[in-house]
Amino acid sequence: MTFLTPKRLLSTRPILFFSFIMLLKSYLAWMVIFEDGFSWTTILKEIPFVLIVYCLIEWFASKRKLVYYLIANLLMTLILFAVIMYYKYYGVIVTYLALEQVNQVTAVKNSVFSLMDPYYLLIFIDIIIMAVLLFRPKKALNWKKESSRKENKRLVVALFTISIALCLFNILPNRASMNEIVKAEQMGILNYEAYMIFSNKDIDFVDPNHITQEKIDTVKKVEQPAAPQLWKMASGKNVIILQMESFQNFLVNLKIDGQEITPNINKLVNENYYFKHFYQQVGQGNTSDAEFVVNTSFYIPPRGAATMIYADKELPSLPKMLKENGYDTATFHTNVVEFWNRGELYKALGFDRYYDAKFFGTEDTVFFGSSDEQLYKKTAEELDRMSQNGKPFYSHIISMTAHHPFTIPSDKYKMTLPERYENTFVGDYIRAQNYADFALGEFIADLKERGIWDDSLVLLYGDHLGLPVYSLDKDDKELMAEIYGHEYSYTDMINIPLVVASTGITEGKVFDQLGGQVDILPTIANMLGISLDNHIHFGQDLLNQSYNVLPQRYYLPSGSFLSSKELFMSGSGFEDGKHYSLAGNGDTEQEATEDEYQRALELLNLSDSYVSQLPSWKTR
């Protein structure tokens, strides 16, 4: 009897060799993504899928078997690598649906690869070694010859059958899990990817005739006041919305070693209405999703960016509402309008005009377009022109220089960081936001000099997070803990500021009530004195409501929501979910209830149903 050494066994049995390689790669992916890391059960979750692929090769590949193994190994490696990198950037498990985002990911490749730890590249080391070996003809020929022998067909059939059974055992009981990361951990990464391809993507839509504002307000528990505060106080004023790139709330009034980071925004905050418990509600589309939510008061779609899914819809919107009330409307963004399909979105929203890279030119560019200084300079000139036509205007202005990875050119530095912040992700972020604040200060001064500021209702908010919890290394986490006075958490991560400023109306006041980007449209409508009785919306006027429920998607697991005192993050459902205090100290007495959980899910379904069944503007 001939006994094979482990080395000999692996070289003559490619199904064993490549399965062992994929197990090591799965170990790497699990250690990066899942809180509990790798365990022995991971073998039963990842290897059955691998064996199904390799059994098919053994079954059908009569020639070039080794080539097929190499191709399969490469494809599964690329999937795992994509999962790792996407998680580090977005905090979610990537699926095939992200393929429609390829152009956008290419545009932000510097952001993505700035998050790469060198050891992630170990996932490709076997491919490199094998490629080198294959360029050595003698070695390649020997390996090809040794691995070409056929495996026992009965053994392959048995292995294939058992692997199918194990995959189904991992997938079927876990389909109902709300939390996508939990679902991927329960199923196995490769099983989850396969499940997402073949799963039923149909949504059980509600009849749009049954979706009324009264129903939405009932689910949200909104009670309309008889005499709303500040009703019509800003009637006839221009409306200027400033969307600040990656601007998180902790920057407000922050000093580091005595240095004020955002003095201009601080002045704005301290002299006007400031909502400190305000939160992002964006998804895969990031900045463009913020544009969608703010201008519609709808939630983002369950899958994909709003600009891709909803851009062909006849959307009820802030621009259309203001146009009906005599406003001229325009949006300003220094990137090309094709990025994130904005051209289509702006048609759906009903803006009179948009200004993109073509308008701002190539002077003083940073990252994807002109700097914030250039944005504000040329926008102020255009707003001055618009203000001369006898009509009030609405302008939505999108800042962009403080974009991930925040490595702005040195000539944009407006502060010197303490040594401990140098060469850190957090330090780069703070320096970029300091520059964004500087440019904003110049814009405000310009608007005041032109007489526009005093005649305008101005709202400023952050579009989305800039410092993901899952992207920070040890040094960055220590810096954030120093800033916050506690461990940086999910509630801190998605917390953005909202400032409402209008000369003669607002004053220095801090509001404690919970709010999100979906609430901006109804808050503006109240201040302008525009009725929303016949305008479906999912937000609420923050100046006249004290209770709120904010459903979250994408950056947090499905089923997650914010209530008055905490963030709830779903597990498989409500019972095994996690509760995070909005105070940021991690302690909570589970203020969020299962009733709120169910109502948050109902609100998302109502929004999905309503928007998805709107007619297309392309067919009119």
TrEMBL record:
Coiled coil: none annotated. Residues 237-530 form the Sulfatase N-terminal domain. It comes from the Bacteria. Belongs to the LTA synthase family. It is found in: Cell membrane. Its main location: membrane. It comes from Paenibacillus endophyticus. GO terms for cellular component: plasma membrane. SUPFAM superfamilies: Alkaline phosphatase-like. InterPro entries: Alkaline_phosphatase_core_sf (IPR017850), LtaS-like (IPR012160), OpgB/LTA_synthase_biosynth (IPR050448), Sulfatase_N (IPR000917). GO terms for molecular function: metal ion binding; transferase activity. The chain crosses the membrane at residues 15-34, 40-60, 67-87, 118-135, 155-172. Mn(2+) binds at E245, T287, D463, H464. Substrate binds at H403. Pathway: Cell wall biogenesis; lipoteichoic acid biosynthesis. Keywords: Cell membrane, Manganese, Membrane, Metal-binding, Transferase, Transmembrane, Transmembrane helix. The active site is at T287. This is Phosphoglycerol transferase MdoB-like AlkP superfamily enzyme. It is a multi-pass membrane protein.
